[in-house]
Amino acid sequence: MIANILHLIVSSLMLLFLVIVVLRFLLQLVRADFYNPLSQGIVKVTMPLLKPLRKVIPGFLGIDMASVVLILLVQLLASVILCVVVGQIGLITNPFLLIAWGFVGALTLISSIFFWCMIISIIGSFIAPFSHHPVLLLANQIINPLAAPIRKVLPPLGGVIDISPIIILLGLKVVDMLIFRSAITQRK
Q1: H/E/C letters for each residue in the chain?
Q2: What is the pLDDT of residues 25-58, one digit of tens each?
Q3: List of long-range contacts for 101-105, beta carbons under 8 Å, 24+ apart
Q4: Count of CB atoms situated within 10 Å of the CB of 146
Q5: Is the pTM of this model over 0.70?
Q6: In 3D, which of 129, 109, 106, 107 has the Cα closest to residue 117?
Q7: Which of 47, 87, 135, 146 falls 20 to 30 Å from 156 in CA-CA distance?
């Protein structure tokens, strides 16, 4: 009973922090507005851990590799802590398996963030189509690199109905299926 409660608390806190770190990486990747209050909050939370990593790990082809390393480190730390809490210490003995599951977890989380940003964008376009709310602006900035190429190929139907969200959501589902399939074959 106590192990289940501890597992819930630890996994929730680690997932929350991991989401913040992944959002930091995605915001840099899509060159989002860092004057947005939500962006500034994410930067403040992640800066104490990213600053020392950036001194050691340089960027590569415009990608902040320190953020990628931080994502994997947080994912690995969460896996180790959860294995200890649950009592599955044997899983910790294989570091390559933990790293592989770290990649799978990070990719799944990135896909989930894109999915929820797409849902927020869709709902926001119906409820407040011309809103400048910080969450809607960031969700649109994260989704735009996926939607822009699709919108070039498939313009809105009748000039009004944008079907790019449907294609993006289907693509994200396919990515999730591929990640899940690779995780299952990796486990065997």
Answers
A1: CHHHHHHHHHHHHHHHHHHHHHHHHHHHHCCCCCCCHHHHHHHHHHHHHHHHHHHHCCCECCECHHHHHHHHHHHHHHHHHHHHHHCCHHHHHCHHHHHHHHHHHHHHHHHHHHHHHHHHHHHHHHHCCCCCCHHHHHHHHHHHHHHHHHHHHCCCECCCECCHHHHHHHHHHHHHHHHHHHHHHHHC
A2: 999 888 888 888 998 999 999 999 888 888 888 8
A3: 101/75, 101/183, 102/72, 102/75, 102/76, 103/72, 104/179, 104/182, 104/183, 104/186, 105/75, 105/79
A4: 19
A5: yes
A6: 109
A7: 135
64 Rama sector, left if φ>0, alpha if ψ -120 to 50, beta otherwise: beta
Q: Please give the Cα distance from 66 to 51 (Å, whole number).
A: 9
Residue 134's alpha-carbon distances to 8, 21, 33, 37, 85, in angstroms, are 30, 18, 10, 7, 37
Tokens 């209050």 found at: 37
